[in-house]
Amino acid sequence: MDKITIRNLTVFANHGVLPEERVLGQKFLVSAVLYLDTRAAGMQDDLNQTVDYARVCSFLCAQMQQPFQLIEAAAEHLAAGVLRNFPLVHRVDLELAKPWAPVQLPVESISVQISRSWHRAAISMGSNMGDCRGHLDAAVEALSSDEMCRGCRVSSYLVTKPVGYTDQPDFLNGAMVLETLYTPHELLDRLQQTEQSRHRERLIHWGPRTLDLDLIFYDDEIISDERLQVPHPEAANRFFVLKPLSELTPCWMHPVLHRTVAQLLARTEEPR
Questions:
Q1: Which end of the chain is more exposed for a tag (fewer CB within 10 A), N or C?
Q2: Torsion on CA atoms 113, 118, 124, 126, rounded to nearest 10
């Protein structure tokens, strides 16, 4: 993507672990690389098609006035703020430098550098207990209103037969596609928190549940650890996952099988 670079914006602020740093304050230098598509702005000579770097600088100065003990925390706050408040920015590389760091040794500065961006995620939803539509709608509302998520798109809901443990009611299923600032494991935690808010209980494997939220895809990442597997290991064979997901993003390529959602759905039969 194209870049807009801000180098060494000087800000006086009150960050630091030591009490005197937070009382007296000191100088900080903020540098940021904003990743976005500037072609429309360049072709049309239109400020509305790009990011106003003067506004970004003013925003960074204002956000630096919230005190933090660690420059790591201040950097996270700045990066997330830029991504949330300037929608054209897809990614930001940010450096926060502390020229007067109290290390009692000759040093030019101490800095932290981070890179943060929006990530695309696909989520499968299911419910077969209580107010099923209400549970799915609540999940959509929870993620749509989360400041760490944006652009939530939701499929239509469909009724499907249970798979695996079949002695239970039919399911109401759907899918969401959104952009998020959460890491994959943070998003997993957020999904499980949402499930718990609808009183989800894990009593029987593949058994009845008030709300089931599964992370199917996260960008094109492949993750396998004791807590999380992405792509979801069962997604490629599940009609109730692929059918609603195909409404939203039929061309999303499975990073392991190298087939699109539409291609996977075409070879998957609906349970009867």
A1: C
A2: 90
